[in-house]
Amino acid sequence: MTYEYRCRECGMTFDVTASVAQKVAGLHPKCPSCSSRKAAQVFGAIGILSRAGLSGGGGGMPACGPDGRTGCC
C-alpha cells in the first residue's frame, strides 16, 4: 500500500510504499528532501453520510432506498 507523509521539518509531502505488516510494526520514513525522520502520516478528507446526503457541501447521493432515503444502493 501507499501512504502519504508530510515532513515536520521542511513541510515536503511524500509517498511511502509499505506492506500492512510494516505499517502496523511502525514506519519512520526519511524525508527525501531534508533526510529528517520527523514525518507524520497525512490522512485525506472523509465524506460522512447523513440522511440528507454527504455532509459538508451539497451534491449528496440519490434517494434510492425503499423509503426514498439515501445510502442503500
Entry keywords:
mainly beta; two-stranded antiparallel sheet; 1 helix; globular; 73 residues; Rubrerythrin, domain 2; three-stranded antiparallel sheet; 2 domains
Structure description:
The chain has 73 residues and is mainly β. The chain has 2 domains: 2-42, Single Sheet (Rubrerythrin, domain 2), CATH 2.20.28; 47-73, no CATH class. Helices cover 8% and strands 25% of the residues. Strand 1 and strand 2 (13-17) form a beta hairpin. The longest helix is centred in the N-terminal third of the chain and has 6 residues, at 20-25. It has a 3-stranded antiparallel sheet, with no helix packed on it. The protein has a two-stranded antiparallel ribbon with strand order 4-5. The chain is built from 1 helix and 5 strands, in the order ββαβββ. It has one helix at residues 20-25; strands at residues 2-7, 13-17, 39-41, 49-50, 53-54.
Describe the strand arrangement of the main beta sheet, using strand numbers.
2-1-3
Please write the string of helix (H) and strand (E) elements. EEHEEE
Outline the low-pLDDT stretches. 54-59
Q: Do you know the CATH topology of the largest domain?
A: Rubrerythrin, domain 2
Tell me the domain tally.
Answer: 2
Percent helix, as a range, is under 10%
Strand content: 15-25%
Over the alpha carbons, how many angstroms does the gyration radius reach?
19 Å
Shape, per Cα inertia axes: globular
**Mean pLDDT across every amino acid position:** 79
User: Number of helix segments?
Assistant: 1
CATH class identity of the largest domain:
Mainly Beta
CATH architecture of the largest domain: Single Sheet
